Amino acid sequence: MRHGACREVKVLEVVPLGQSKRPGEFFELRLELPDWEAWRPGQFVMLRPLSWGLELVWGRPFSIASADRGVLCVLFQALGRGTRRLAGLRPGDQVLVWGPLGNGFAVDPGKRTLILAGGMGLAPFRAYVERHPAPDLIRLFFAHRFPLECYPFDYLSGLVDAVRVEERSPGDLALVIDALRAEMAAFDQRGLILACGPTPFLGTVRDRALELGLAERTQLSLEERMACGVGACLGCAVKDAGGGNVQVCSRGPVFWAGDVQLGRG
Ligand SMILES: Cc1cc2nc3c(=O)[nH]c(=O)nc-3n(C[C@H](O)[C@H](O)[C@H](O)COP(=O)(O)OP(=O)(O)OC[C@H]3O[C@@H](n4cnc5c(N)ncnc54)[C@H](O)[C@@H]3O)c2cc1C
Ligand code: FES
Which CATH code fits 113-223? Predict the structure, then answer.
């Protein structure tokens, strides 16, 4: 199932999130769920509405936030042309969905799992927590800049042990990094650490994992710009530990911390 299939589905709903301070910036897109045989949290989909025509040639990658009872959900922040146009979709509009793509996060049901999420990096963990056989063994650390209503944090904090740090000004970044490093140092060395977020956030996690000798227990979900999403264009390559190129879409997006360098290949 690594390369998934391409299906045309209908939009069910586009729900704006966190309207209080920044209207319209965050959304939940609900689509008809394609007839997938199986999928894993941490996998992603490439989305391309038919209405993009020739204006936007490539689809855009999004984590699967949930795929259940006939509904595929992705959570997204409207940042550029593609995501702003996704935000303007209406019920019944048609979207090409390639998926499920990529590998997904590891699960170790008998051991503690520490989730480290930055901003929209929280999206894949909604599915991860919902599907985990022992959510009481999960601790979630969440760092964010935008109001909490933009993210599924309140929902997840009802299911797992959760803490959050808000970055209100650029000066708070050091506090976020200290909290992240402390969280990792306090973690049970036998469990799993799973991280998703902006590249500098993942860089801190990777460095700390190497420092603490936890690289073989720490997974990073990388966000690179993608075009084909299925390993055909080399557009998403990063450097692997040996200095070679590795494609994030087909070999990731989830990698063990010691197996990749962060940055472009
Ligand atoms: C595996 C994977 C899962 C993702 N999951 C989510 C998700 O669940 N929710 C979500 O909001 N976003 C997610 N992203 C990021 C999302 O794909 C980009 O925000 C989106 O493609 C931007 O498209 P655009 O046309 O709006 O932006 P563009 O106009 O192409 O660019 C706007 C800005 O976004 C940056 N950008 C573009 N592509 C990416 C990218 N792939 N990663 C990070 N920044 C990018 C650009 O550098 C630029 O600053 C994911 C990315 C990957 C690779
Ligand atoms: S996006 Fe084309 S190879 Fe990864």
Answer: 3.40.50.80
What pTM was computed for the model? 0.93
The answer as to CATH 2.40.30.10 being correct for domain 5-101 is: yes
Nearest CA residue ID for atom 17, ligand 1: 61
Cis, bond preceding 49 (omega within 30 deg of 0): no
Q: Please give the average pLDDT of every successive group of 10 residues along the chain, which has 265 residues.
A: 80 86 79 94 97 90 96 95 94 96 94 95 97 94 92 95 89 84 85 94 93 93 91 90 92 95 64
Which residue's CA is the closest to the ligand 1 atom numbered 31?
80
- 53 phi, psi to nearest 5 deg: 50, -130
DSSP state of 70: T
Write down the domain spans for the chain: 5-101, 113-223
Pocket test for ligand 1, best of 14, 220, 223 (most atoms within 8 A of CB): 223
